[in-house]
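subagent[fold] <- orchestrator: predict structure for attached chain, return tokens only, no commentary.
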Amino acid sequence: MANYIHVPDEAPAVPKIDVTVDENDYRSGALKLIKALRPSWKPSEVKMKFFTDGITNKLLGCYAGAVMQDVVLVRIYGNKTELLVDRENEVKSFRVLHAHRCAPRLYCTFNNGLCYEFLQGTALEPEHIRSQAVFRLIARQLAKYHAIHAHNGWMPQSDLWLKMGKYFALIPKYFKDPEQNARLSMEVPSPQCLREELVWLQQSLSMLGSPVVLCHNDLLCKNIIYNKEAGSYTKNHVSIFIHNGACKSNVKFIDYEYAGYNYQAYDIGNHFNEFAGLNEVDYSHYPKRAFQLQWLRSYLEAYKEHKGQGSDVSDREVEILYVQVNQFALASHFFWGLWALIQAKFSTIDFDFLGYAVLRFNQYFKMKIEVAELNLPK
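subagent[fold] -> orchestrator:
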């Protein structure tokens, strides 16, 4: 909930610029933003590059000169995404994370988007986040997020169930396109079925005792940036440098649209689901138990360090988190299934959102059989 995100007083203010950028004729609007943010740049010399990885918004990189050194990212919000994303909360999360050196600088907001600093590095692929060299860095960086105190004395609460209830109310009952409509009725669970599952999820997962922490909530591969200056990147693997005998953290997370207070286990389970990839989804890549136990131990060691609780982690603590994470992974499938149905109705981005919803719900029901019987250790 937006009320629970407390931005530190020392965080720099973020100006609002009264500009609307047309996603189909973007140059003139983007140049107005650049004039305010980089007044020394000559408009005729400003180059623009579209980034095509995202499926929620459109992202434009603006720079001057021969190389992409100082780049201003212009994110144009997707059609009707205000139904899915709390934009005020996104800005607060952005500012909090920047104050804790976990995010790039947010330059401004505008009428239908925002501008922010470009992080040098490479967006990772599923094979990278599964590698020994990288997964511990990701686990420790996520622990740093989760340890951030940004609620100003409030008892933080998750708005997961409230948000899923809102999404459920927005899912389309039919499509004008006959083929899409047939797929909706034949391949997607009925609204009554989805309502029953949502009730079951809330009743079951709320009892698991997962702490509510500041979460990223959308930790897919492309939202993880490997910093080349702290290490070296090759096509088939990511390698790291060792500085003064210690591993220098060289991954950063981007895109904070869905960031906010949520269950710790949801954020991790959601990340594990993303091991399957996005364009060619393969859930056989969901991490096996042995890998998860390594990942979760690395995470808990870092989390306890950040919380000032030492770094000793017991097998029981790891096992508790393992059960919580794999059951909250169900909620992640359900959340993005609902999200994809809404995007199928409104988005102008070329992506098979309806097919993606089917994938997520199918995996939800398959996984439910496998993990619903997991019990917390006594």
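orchestrator: received. Logging for downstream: The domain at 26-117 is CATH 3.30.200.20 (Phosphorylase Kinase; domain 1). Residues 231-247 have pLDDT under 50 and may be disordered.
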